[in-house]
């Protein structure tokens, strides 16, 4: 099927949102700061300074602002798989499919990504 140029091919719409996000491999504690480019219920595209391998499993946490949730900001922790990595003018553009997600409190985020290299609490 040929779609007119510029027409969206995805079944789930993506929303252009620039949000801070923390990304880490599922097998490690080292978190990298990144910024989302767009977000959907099935995936995310973000820009980061560190290389991420295609097909790797990652965890990432972002906060959806009140302007999106229509209530209060909501923290979302996701587990996904990197499906594409590209170059984006001095950064890496990473697309990941979301496999699962959960809503987490601010306190839980501190345990997932401790400040200043502290050990995560159980």
Strand order of the largest sheet: 1-2-3-6-5-4
Poorly predicted spans: 118-122
Which range best describes the helical content: under 10%, 10-25%, 25-40%, 40-55%, 55-70% or over 70%? Answer: under 10%
Outline the biggest β-sheet.
6 strands, antiparallel, barrel
Number of strands: 6
Mean pLDDT: 84
Q: What form results from the Cα inertia axes?
A: globular
Calculate Rg over CA atoms: 15 Å
Gap between N and C termini, in Å? 51 Å
**Structural class per helix/strand content?**
mainly beta
Order of helix and strand elements from N to C terminus: EEEEHEEH
Beta-strand residue fraction? over 45%
Q: What's the total helix number?
A: 2
Described by its quaternary structure, the protein is single chain
Structure keywords:
122 residues, mainly beta, 45% strand, disordered C terminus, 2 helices
